[in-house]
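Recall the central idea of this unit: under ordinary conditions, the amino acid sequence of a chain determines the structure it adopts. In this exercise we apply that idea directly, starting from the sequence alone.
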Amino acid sequence: MLSHMENDFEHGQPSPADARAALSSLDADGARLAQHVVTPWWYHPALGAVVALLTGAQALPMPVAIVLVAVGIAALPVLTTTYSRRYGVAVSQPAGPRSRRLLHLALAMVIAAMAASLTIRLGALPTWWALAPTTLAFAMTVVLGRRYDGALRDELAHRA
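Accordingly, the structure predicted from this sequence is:
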């Protein structure tokens, strides 16, 4: 059937039956890909720890903050590359509207938490106050990250 489909595609429009078969094959590929998007248990807590490090660093004095931000920035690609190499899937691109909304929500939450920590430093408040936005950033990264994975799997499996 594939060689017949290739001939039809080369000479013009495919037949309706060939088009249905191609779409069915794409649906099956999406379902198989969705099965591979299974994030290991350690990924979101590790990502949350990096986000917490970046968030908490904003409240610390400048030399320490710069070092911790550099460590966090270096850890992000190590974490994401390790995941994509080990599992063969990169989950950094949303597959539909729900995963896109969750990704935007997570990014907005991280930005707000970092801004809160920076405000603590600039306002000369006690540094321990940064525990609140830092803890929130960690928890929301884990919770929203797991929801994002579920939405991504669902959208990949049920693409229309």
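The helical segments are 2-10, 16-36, 43-57, 62-87, 97-122, 131-157.
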